Request: fold
Amino acid sequence: MVLQAQEGRLTTSAARVLVATAVPAERDAVARAFPGGTTEVRLPGSALLHRTRAGYDLLAAGVGPAPAAAGTATALTAAALDGRPYALVVSAGIAGGFQPMAPVGSLVVADEITVADLGAETADGFLPVTELGFGTVSHRPPNSLVRVTAQAVGAHPGAVLTVSTVTGTAARAAELLARHPRALAEAMEGFGVAEAAAAHAVPVLEIRAVSNPVGPRDRAAWRIGDALAALTEAFGKLVPALESWNPHDHR
Reply:
């Protein structure tokens, strides 16, 4: 299914949806939700997997906000130059969840995509880049899109933090929660994807399956396989739900 606003709904058209993940394992987990064959489309520095019958393009852009932004921007620009711009960009993958709000195995959808470590350390604590007088630190997906997604897949809505360095201590987790009390999860790509989408004036969504707690790195407690399976199941429910989303609904 491909998305375009028509009579206040999203329906089949030449427009497409771009799903950006960090690594191929996440991309392939999303791909398993779609029927039909796959066509590879080469881009500078990467390749898209086009799900022929579904109309979704899947991109493993790389780990971290910079590769995510660059890869997403490349795909968006290529689509625009081809005369078939994307109607929606989705940042998807696994993530660490802040406990107990986002337990391992749960799904979260971002109503706020915030970069948590872009700024300056000072004697009085961390200052986000906006308090230094430039830049931005947050993007907000459309409220109606977050609501439709949360209801369809059973996800918790809240802030998803983008970090360049994954949290590995309880002290760091507590610090992030003190600065971002609405945070449910942390990942490494959402803000980069959102920056690229904003530059093209395309709405963005971030959905994550929680594979591990945020805090001390206990690899024995990670449930990556379960999280990838949850991601597949989520997209199986999300795609038909998006058909009812009205992009002009700003509530």
Summary: The chain has a mean pLDDT of 90. The CA atoms of residues 108 and 156 lie 5 Å apart.
